[in-house]
Amino acid sequence: MNWHNIDPTLPQLSHVFDSSAAMHRFAQQPSTRCRRQSIEYIPGTRCTATYLLSQEDAAWQTIGVVEIEPAGVEHRLFTEDPLLASLPTAMDANRLSAHFAVDHAALGQIDAVIPVRYKPGSRCTLRYHTRTQGAQSFCFGKLLAKDSAEIAQAVDDLYRASQSTPELPGVAQPLAYWPELNMLVQAAVAGAELHDLAFDPQQKLADRISWMRAAGRAAAALHSAAIDVTGQPQTLAGDLVALDEYKPALRQIDPHLADRFEAAIALTAKTAHPQRELASVLSHGALRTDQFMVEGDHLVLIDLDSLCWSSPARDLGNFLAYLTWKALRQPHHAAFIQLGQQAFLEGYQTFRALPDAQWISHYHVASILKVLGRRYTGLTYREWPLTEQLLDFAVGLIRQ
């Protein structure tokens, strides 16, 4: 891949793919391992990449950030994020001990703090290894750049509701919220991701389908929950406007595909325009198979910082879209995905009536376009050959 030809204003763009160079920038010991986590590319402006750096014995782990701009290359650690200014405190076991001491019975003594996921300027998930009366365990802290108090309250309300309403999906128990850190701490979930179980061929097909059906029922129960969430409802019109952020990267890399992408957005807006948006419900906001954990015989919903009000069709369309993309990337799963999508919708209907099929299709398309756009802002170039087919599928859904 000739990155100079893709964006001459960022001639050092290829550096984000050089894990060895990133490792040398951040390595504290010779045995450091480096794995790229994410890329965010804005043509002509900058490209930001994050890397998970760790030791083989897992005794040390951090996240490095490389930023490519026209002026050159800069690098920093994730704890130097000005929009997440409390990260250094949240990462320091000694400095954080005062916070943990308040909830000592629940949280215990901190043995280690491990960064898990980080989105620059937005959020960071930390894993706390703790010890209480000699027993070791861990919990997770999610530090947010904005709306942390509102999200923490909604998560706590949903957890309490899940304790008295068996139909609701489980929620990891909130252990503490520290406003001075903008961080919510939750208990770990003992189980496996639904995504891993559903796509494990060693599992019985009937069990895999059953879990997909259970996910649909859990989504319907969530949509029926009487939990308050602050903020304006998310709408299809808003989602289509939000797709603008992907246009520059598409235009820079593949002008023909960019034209088709913009035409698909316009066609979706035109098709949906005569229809009135469905009444809003409590929604996950980013529903996918990897947002469910299987704990025993019950599903637990995770990553709740995207909770919002929206049409029930929005969660369903997003769930279906990511499965559509997986079927295209991994055709050996396509037959199961078709059954799984059907089971998911069937499960939903066992608790709540499905939204209008056209609205599900509208949101299915909007999420497909988001998935496509992220292939280009994320510079996942190995997947670019599949994006024409993905767009064909989306346009087909619109024209139906």
Q: What is Rg?
A: 22 Å
Spans of at least 5 consecutive residues whose pLDDT stays below 50 are none
User: What global shape is seen?
Assistant: globular
- State which percent range the strand residues make up: 15-25%
What's the tally of helices? 15
CATH class of the largest domain: Alpha Beta
**Main beta sheet strand tally, sense and closure:** 5 strands, antiparallel
What name goes with the CATH superfamily of the largest domain? Aminoglycoside phosphotransferase (APH), C-terminal lobe
Q: Strand tally, please?
A: 15
Level-2 CATH architecture of the largest domain? Alpha-Beta Complex
End-to-end Cα distance, whole Å, is 37 Å
Biggest sheet: strand arrangement = 5-6-7-10-9
Describe the 3D structure:
It is a single chain. By secondary structure, this protein is α+β, with helices and mostly antiparallel strands. It folds into 3 domains: 3-80, no CATH class; 83-187, 2-Layer Sandwich (Phosphorylase Kinase, domain 1), CATH 3.30.200; 192-399, Aminoglycoside 3'-phosphotransferase, Chain: A, domain 2. The protein has helices at 3-6, 19-26, 87-91, 93-102, 104-107, 148-164, 194-198, 205-223, 236-242, 247-253, 255-272, 312-329, 334-349, 357-377, 387-399; strands at residues 33-42, 46-54, 61-69, 72-77, 109-119, 123-132, 135-144, 170-171, 174-178, 183-187, 192-193, 281-283, 292-295, 298-301, 308-310. Strands 5-6-7-10-9 form a 5-stranded antiparallel sheet. A 4-stranded antiparallel sheet has the order 1-2-3-4. The two termini are 37 Å apart. The mean pLDDT is 90.
